[in-house]
Amino acid sequence: MMPGRTRHRTDGVDEGVKRRRRWPLVLLFAMGVLAGASLWAYSPSLPQDMLIARYTNDRSRFVDIGGAHAHVRTQGNPNGIPIVMIHGANGSLHVWESWALALAPQARLISVDLPGHGLTGAWPRDEYTVDAYVDFVEMLVDALNIDRFVLVGHSLGGGVAWTFATRRPGRVSQLVLVNAAGYPPDDGTAPWPTRAARLPVVGDIAIYFKPELWVRQTLKQAYADPAMVTPERVRRTAELQRFPGNREASLRRARTQELLDPTPLKQLVVPTLIIWGGKDRWLPVADAWHFKDDIKGAKLEIFEKLGHDPMEEDAKGTAAAVATFLRPLASPTESPAIGAKAHSSVLP
């Protein structure tokens, strides 16, 4: 009788072989999904001519400012008080349109897309810090033959405005700061998007992803009223970020701009109005009080129900506050201040 053969169990071995054979397929599938997601998310720059045609109007013009092809709008009363308005990070001159309409009877309003923003695009100087923008503002007003003017700044533009005023006080008749940058956060660190942008490779790749989702979420945080996050506003903001050179400029700004030092504010002698949205999620109302304490004689108006962009959420009320502030500059023959008194906290 032949001895029985010993039967070896191969189930485990076979299963291990099967798993090893599946790994390449799983890896290929994962790579395919990643490649598909990357292709979907990738968004190249949009055609410059198309964006210029879409986002300019009959008050737009392009001026050579230090080599930058700057998008500038001048509107309102040509004989009125000159007001230069500076927008915030990733914004554009469009944020001032409601103020321009409201203040037009008494003021000559000049708004501009900063280098790396809006329809201005990249700056051959390749600097996008507050100090560089201060130089840009001076070159702008020189090019427009404006000697003395009211300077308005929002957010990052507010940091540019007060820095300019501390360095060129003789050129600024009055200063208006709207939810302005100026004071470091309590923990002394930059916001997480800035920290992420500073990461090697990560920041370089991320800037080319579709901005729409990020823009929509950012605007939801910027406005206290969700109704402000309209499809048109999301589209405009996202498309202007895709203007050639803007995203690369934003990345460079994030990697080179240091926290601001507010110390020079204590020497500022320019009449100043501080406007603040009480529901700002990015810059706390405490910063408004810091500005008021540091700038001698500054006036503060807090709009309790507004967010980071109060000049858009309540254009009538905030513009009226500015008009009242500017009234001492107006001659008896000029138009009176427009609008009703703002419903806000007025702190002398």
Task: Explain what the structure shows.
With 348 residues, the chain is an alpha/beta fold. The protein has one domain: Alpha/Beta hydrolase fold, catalytic domain (Rossmann fold), CATH 3.40.50. 41% of the residues lie in helices and 16% in strands. It contains 13 helices and 9 strands. The protein has helices at 11-41, 48-55, 97-103, 130-143, 156-167, 192-197, 202-206, 212-222, 231-241, 246-256, 285-294, 310-313, 315-326, and strands spanning 60-65, 68-76, 81-86, 107-112, 149-154, 172-178, 272-277, 299-303, 345-347. It has a 9-stranded mixed sheet, sandwiched between helices. Strand 3 (81-86), helix 3 (97-103) and strand 4 form a beta-alpha-beta unit. 41% of the residues are buried. Residues 29-40 and 331-348 have low confidence and may be disordered.
Rg, Cα atoms, Å:
26 Å
Q: Could you list the spans in which at least 5 consecutive residues all have pLDDT below 50?
A: 29-40, 331-348
Could you say what the CATH architecture is?
A: 3-Layer(aba) Sandwich
Provide the residue-averaged pLDDT.
Answer: 85
Shape: globular
- Helix and strand element order: HHEEEHEHEHEHHHHHEHEHHE
CATH top level?
Answer: Alpha Beta
* CATH homologous superfamily caption: Alpha/Beta hydrolase fold, catalytic domain
Count the E strands.
Answer: 9
How many structural domains are formed by the residues? Answer: 1
CATH topology: Rossmann fold
N- and C-termini, Cα separation: 113 Å
Which strands sit side by side, in order, in the main sheet?
A: 1-2-4-3-5-6-7-8-9
SS strand fraction = 15-25%
* SS field, number of helical segments: 13
* Main sheet record: 9 strands, mixed
Helical percentage: 40-55%
Going by helix content, strand content and strand pairing, the class is alpha/beta
